Amino acid sequence: MTCLQTGLRSVFRPCSRMHEAGKQDKAGGIMEEKKLTLEEIHEELLEQLKDITDVCERHRIPYNLMCGSLLGAVRHHGFIPWDDDVDLLMTRENFTRFREVYPKECSARFELTYLNTWTPRVMNRDPEKAAAFTDLFILDHVPPEGFRRTWWFLRLHLLQGMLKRNTDYSRFGLKNRILLHVTHWMGLPFSVEWKTRRYEAISTRYTTGNDLCMSNGAFELMMHIWHPEQFRETKLVPFEHLQCRIPVKYDEVLRILFGDDYMTPPPENERVAKHLDV
After folding, report:
1. CA within 20 to 30 Å of 4's CA: 201, 252, 262, 269, which one?
2. Are the C-beta atoms of 224 and 257 separated by less than 8 Å?
């Protein structure tokens, strides 16, 4: 089956993310699970990244590495050794173009899907490789400061809570645990597809202004306010054996995300992968 045949429909196809991916047997039982090593995850992610960036370069769709992948490119010239996903950033306009062309031209191994969450991801169609994925973060315009901006963020946060699955509540304080439980129950009557489409409708409501945010960033990550000039110019840098784009103003971006000492690795006991628990 080609990407063209299944592409656009797969963007909203629900499926389950897991670090240990298993298959169902013909009786509906779960067969023995296969756990990917971090080395295998990195190998798969590089194949995804090459596939994505080839399409972007071919169609001149601007993108850049973001979050942990941006830090990895600058500090390690590749993956942060303990990281287990890839983070890319596009404006809404460029993501819309990407969503149109990528399913038609990607490798038949890959698909673009929302995976029961609000963040589009490129993944391998093989469930045994579900632990490796590329997150696509989107820059959207935010409302003017004041009540409209507060209300806009609140609705997106509520929908994030409604969409979250398999939450590790031990990571949160009592107040946030209560909020997560409440929003989870609020979301149960609605389908994943409805919630995802509602999330995109709110995210794209505003189309002008100089203030942007990663509208599909999780919780605090969403709250950073960005400006177009921070990402307008990019440059190619080594990422493992690939060449990938980062913002020319990467230092400014990384200081906002990780603090002024971003070039200093964290203590060994904090060197673990951190991402959405959907």
Report:
1. 201
2. yes
Find tokens 């409805």 and name the residue: 194
Pair of tokens at residue 145: 């400061």
DSSP letter at 239 equals: E
Helix, strand, coil share of the chain (percent; to 5):
45, 15, 40
The span from the CA of 81 to the CA of 169, in Å, is 27
Q: Rounded distance, CA 191 to CA 196, Å?
A: 9
Return d(Cα 213, Cα 221) in angstroms, integer: 9
Predicted TM-score (pTM) of this structure: 0.84
In the chain (278 residues long), the average pLDDT of successive 10-residue segments reads 40 39 36 74 98 98 98 98 96 98 97 84 94 96 97 95 79 78 90 91 96 93 97 98 98 97 93 60
Tell me the residue length of the chain: 278
How does DSSP classify residue 215?
A: T
In angstroms, the CA 238 to CA 44 distance is 17
Q: Is 263 exposed, middle or buried (0-12, 13-18, 19+ CB in 10 A)?
A: exposed
Cα 142 off chain centre by: 19
